[in-house]
Write a structure and sequence with these properties.
Layout lengths: L2 E12 L6 E3 L2 E3 L1 E11 L4 E6 L3 H4 L3 H16 L7 H10 L5 H19 L3 H4 L8 E2 L2 E3 L4 H14 L3 E5 L5 H15 L4 E5 L6 H13 L4 E3 L7 H10 L4 E3 L6 H9 L5 E4 L1 H4 L2 H13 L3 E4 L6 H13 L27 E3 L2 E3 L12 H6 L5
Parallel strand pairs: 7-8, 8-9, 9-10, 10-11, 11-12, 12-13
Antiparallel strand pairs: 1-4, 2-3, 4-5, 6-15, 14-15
Length: about 375
């Protein structure tokens, strides 16, 4: 079997207005993503998704399409798509950076490999080790009353855990927002905060004292992504696990976080790592250093979200203190896949069909096409 052709389609699926997310890194109100189809000479097609937001990833659908057409596509043309790891040097070596774009090609090859074998990707990876994946909700960095309203809605849906966006508007505003959410949801709901690099070291330590009194269970990315020393300093001063998110893209990043004692838990992303296998290497590094890991989110659409679910279902070391950010079906008005994923409030189950276990909805793809 050989890779014969790659097709790309830019998409932009709007979010439900009531659940648009704002945080220190900006506002996410739609998905300026790229759907990738890798076609083979055997008639099988693999699906991938570049789930990129430029302010966060430095990539968008235009750059991704160019990189695929000019660099990665020619580098992998003619290769056997059933061997994603064998193809990885060609994908990664075609151009520096652009991990979200590389991830789309790599996950599409896993999709073809699974379809060719008649197995879901998590089976190809040796799973399942976690058939049901615990999930949490993400509360926008809005005014306290609005954040409390969103959090209450999430509890009504059945969510047992959530995080609140902070690092936005100053410490006083952050504490007021988290306080309002805690009062709205009660003391039994697991509650964390996500600063998205929005605090400095002193602010994070100061916030930590207030957050502990509110029963906050974890603090995600309190300071800048490359401030490993700052993460470590905050970790020593707060009484809750520190989660590295923006800091934790690759296996090399994971090793730096570990040796600097910067965190307790790492977020794993298929996009930041460059694919399914690279993301599992991030988790493996975390586990080898005695750290936990969880699944992060760029509010992926269904294709990349399925890839995250296969990683979680097949990989040891998931830290149940911080449930996964597998939540985007609750945020978007629609999707480009034909059948909805099994993502409920508080739990997700990886698709059991061959490959990634998702099919394109061609009508939805045309409806959400982003270059019109």
């Amino acid at each position: 079997m050989r890779i014969e052709r790659i097709r790309t389609t830019p998409v932009a699926v709007p979010m439900v207005p009531e659940r648009i997310i704002s945080g220190a890194a900006g506002t996410h109100d739609r998905s300026p993503f790229l759907v990738v189809e890798v076609e083979t000479d055997a008639g099988l097609t693999g699906l991938g998704e570049v789930s990129c937001t430029p302010i966060w990833s430095g990539e968008d659908s235009t750059t991704a399409s160019h990189v695929i057409d000019s660099y990665i596509g020619p580098a992998i043309a003619g290769l056997d798509p059933r061997a994603p790891e064998a193809a990885w040097p060609a994908i990664d070596g075609a151009i520096a950076g652009h991990t979200f774009t590389k991830a789309a090609l790599e996950m599409a090859l896993w999709d073809i490999a699974g379809k060719a074998a008649g197995l879901p990707v998590y089976r190809l990876l040796g799973g399942p080790v976690m058939p049901e994946i615990p999930t949490k909700f993400s509360v926008t960095g809005a005014a306290p009353d609005r954040a409390a309203e969103v959090a209450s809605w999430a509890v009504e849906q059945g969510y047992p855990a959530m995080k609140v966006k902070v690092g936005r508007g100053g410490i006083a505003a952050d504490i007021a927002r988290v306080t309002a959410v805690r009062e709205a949801i009660g003391g039994d709901i697991v509650l964390g905060v996500d600063a998205n690099c929005g605090w400095n070291r002193a602010e994070a330590a100061m916030a930590g004292r207030h957050l502990e009194a509110l029963g906050v269970s974890f603090m995600e990315q309190p300071v800048a992504r490359r401030d490993y020393g700052g993460m470590a300093a905050v970790r020593r001063r707060v009484g809750m696990p520190v989660v590295a998110d923006e800091s934790a893209g690759t296996a090399e990043d994971a090793a730096l976080l570990a040796v600097n004692e910067s965190c307790d838990i790492l977020s794993v992303y298929v996009g930041m790592a460059g694919g399914i296998a690279p993301a599992r290497r991030v988790a493996a590094v975390a586990t080898s250093f005695g750290l936990g890991w969880t699944i992060g989110s760029n509010l992926e659409l269904g294709i990349a979200l399925a890839a995250h679910m296969h990683i979680a279902a097949s990989t040891h070391g998931f830290d149940h203190r911080v449930p996964a950010d597998i939540l985007s079906p609750f945020y978007y008005e629609g999707d480009v896949i034909a059948e909805p994923l099994d993502v409920r409030a508080g739990v997700a189950v990886a698709p059991a069909g061959p490959g990634l276990g998702v099919r394109l909805d061609r009508d939805a793809l045309a409806r959400y096409r982003g270059d019109r």
